[in-house]
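Reopening this ticket.

The earlier resolution said the output was attached, but the attachment link was broken on my side. Pasting everything inline this time so it's all in one place.
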Amino acid sequence: MKPVQVGLLGLGTVGGGTVNVLKRNADEIARRAGRGIEVTHAAARDISKQRICDTSGIQLTTDPFEVVSNPEVQIIVELIGGDSLAYELVIKAIENGKHVVTANKALIAKHGNEIFAAAQKKGVMVAFEAAVAGGIPIIKAIREGLAGNEIQWLAGIINGTGNFILTEMRDKGRDFDDVLKEAQALGYAEADPTFDVEGIDAAHKLTILASIAFGIPLQFDAAYTEGITKITRDDVGYAEQLGYRIKHLGIAKRTQSGIELRVHPTLIPERRLIANVDGVMNAVLVMGDAVGPTLYYGAGAGDEPTASAVVADIVDVVRVLTSDPENRVPHLAFQPDALSDTPILSMNDVETAYYLRMQASDKPGVLADVTRILGDQGISIEAIIQKEPAPDMENASVIMLTHKVQEQKMNDAIAQIETLDTIHDKVTRIRVETLSAN
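Inline output:
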């Protein structure tokens, strides 16, 4: 049988890795797919540039629409990133009756609803395993492996840059800005690291995970996003003293009132496996009603780890090229006409526990004032650490862990605490999650 012809849009790190994996493992992949798979066409901005892959046998062009419109190409692999040109190319490919594989989380999170509707109408597949957590097959695990479960919640370390920074801060007592510069020097962070450190990248991925976990439309604009730029090495150290570690988590949770969809720094108990995921590695913890907690761990980026997911999607597409479109695995795990309109909760309505750190005057009655304000909001305290001020300092650090409370009540309490003459600067607030099976 004639090999399936693949058109590649983008020959950067992941594109080169995809070519390498397809060529190196060609025989094994053909045995799995039932026929050969070859990259025959590719588009890149500079086709004369030195590549990490062998491009012999591949027709190169600087015009990606030329690849998308080529009648011989059956599968388009979009690896150029962004959500404008990529959107145009993917929609054009679908209109041309081609299946699409993409590693573009922003594209899926922001335009996936339209793209999947167009693909459904045309009878083609859009596969996106590589868009979340690199080489970890988390999309397939939730969409297919856990199809018998009602997913209750999931929590993920889904940005390696942020995880590297927090790991270095904890292990070496370094400051955020110092580690960020190293992450940029190592190539883990972009020159503009906003997407990574402010949680936007993680929110794209969480949006996708929540949709396939709960059967809801993609709603990136509804995700609450908070970065790690305000985390200090003191916070990291105090968390350790309390038996916790700080991780930048994406959390999606089903509640009676709606779906929680949030990315923020989080204290989690140090004994949890996910608390011990360090460096640039990713991990996603999923709680199903039948299976209980399951953890998926691996490389969240890199040429061949991400290419592993891209190639797996290509194999999936090849396996079903001739199958009835109505009997394929749905893009978002649930049948398109069965997606739920369950609302996404405002962050003000979310309930969680909290870590609070404040600078307080070293005098009697200060703690009493703070605890009174918390008590008036129905907030109970689980633990308190009070650090004696340094000899040349007048203020002491006070650290509190609270029990679970609605975010709006905590906002009100913090606003009142910050008006006290004895409290200096802003109160630092970090949410706390136990991630337990209960």
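Reporter confirms the inline version is readable. The chain has 14 helices and 17 strands. The two ends are 52 Å apart (CA to CA).
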